User: What shape does this take?
Amino acid sequence: MRKFLSMSAQSRLFIVFGLLALVAALNLVVGIINTASFQEMVTYLRISALALERSGSAQANLAREQLAVRNVLLSDSPEDWGQVYTYSGQFYDYLTSESLNSLSSEQDQALAELDVLRQQYDRDVEEIITATWEGELDPEGALLQVRASVDPLAMQLNQLLDDISARHLAEIAENTRQIEGSIWSSANTARWAILILAILLVAGMFVANQITQPLHSLTSALIAFQNNTYQRETLEPYLDSRDELGQLARAIDAMATSITESNRLKDQFLRSASRFIPTQYLEFLEKPTITDVNLGDHVAAEMAVMFSDIRGFTTASERMTPQENFDFINEYLKLVSPVIQRHEGFIVKFLGDGMMAIFPYGVDDAVRAGIEKQQKVIEFNAMLAQRGFPPVSVGIGIHTGQMMVGMIGEERRIQGDAFSDNVNLTSRVESLNKFYGTSMIVSEETLRGLQQPVSYRMRYLGKVQVKGRQAPLGLYEVYEGLSADVAARKDASKASFERGIELYTRGDFAGARQAFDAVLEIDPDDKTARYYLERCFEWADRIPPSHWDGVIVMMDK
Assistant: This one.
């Protein structure tokens, strides 16, 4: 130190500047090395981003091809065929891209799996289209076949592409962190040379800032994309840049846009599929999505079943064209079907102008739905009157019992259904509305399942033995949903009606006849009372058998 201080100022300055020059030279060498390493990392980053973009485009093309295949099955137009071939070709371009091959052994293995699945996908699509051309499948059957066999393959392809994208995304994030670390290392080295390289340090910091800021934005964009909060404005200042960071920004933006569009198309497909298998049905089967439903899935429990059918539609349909008939049924079902969902039920299947519905969570749900459906029919008749058509009525039957609800069919064609003798019995209960002249009948088992039966406006109809069953079935008419005047007349005559049923059951036909006469004085349109009155006249001069219990035996279904 003393020797240094004893030197002349010129020598000391020479030594200092020499040392500073040496520091500057070392800083320059380190900067050159870091720049070369940075360039290599950015180049690999660009390759990974390009691969990420192409995997996202492949997903979007696969989703568009799925929609195009459905359009081909429905319309068979040249434009749809062109879209199928275009998107299929673009997908295969992705599989055979030289820039994607040999990136890694995992990448090659994933592409090989993609190629095998894609070939299986093409074979299944070709089989379905060929079967449609040859008339073996109608469009609806073909679409169901696509959902059963092709869509699961598409889901697997999408999953593999998601895995590939996730791998590229992880590589991009890792390389981005390495680049950022390299840049900060260069910046720290520059700070050590700040006394002799002030201008160079300022310039270096300016350049470093120009690089680190885009990298921070790119990292934020990737994190936002992972969290589904990506906004294009994050990268917009760098999208027009001509350097590698600009290319990376454009690749990430294109990837995000492509995957977002792919997710939108997938959501659109799932929404379309939910119209064939309702969400309530999936929840009942404890299946998260439609793709998790399999042949044989079922739930066995005690539930309320509703069958309903339109009465008087034949008269109206005779004045309609086939298209008007079709529109009439859809308009009616569109009005009454939401009633089922509002009361925690779901429609198992449509039966022409009728339906079969299940209410798994409570018997009261089924009865309240039936009442509201009666009220909706009154609204529907008001619309029919404005068009000059005669009114219609609805027949509703509700029964409660053990049954099994689930998916039936075969591997390529499944549908929901319910099985049990109680289901068949419910159908018989509904058909009895025509016999009794009523609108809504519930069984005695349903009555026992109600929380407060007295809160509903109903009356006892007696017992009936339907064909195929030995045990008689107690029946009740629910008339709460009928028009106010009809319901009021039934309220006024209820005591006389149920008194007549009781006397008829005991074999006192004279007393029963007086009771039903009293009912008809109040409500001349009471078809059930008129039926029992006719029965009383038939037995007036006859002695009932010793085992008489008043049960009506039905010979037909």
Q: What stands out?
A: The first helix runs from residue 2 to 6. Residues 62 and 184 are 42 Å apart (CA to CA).
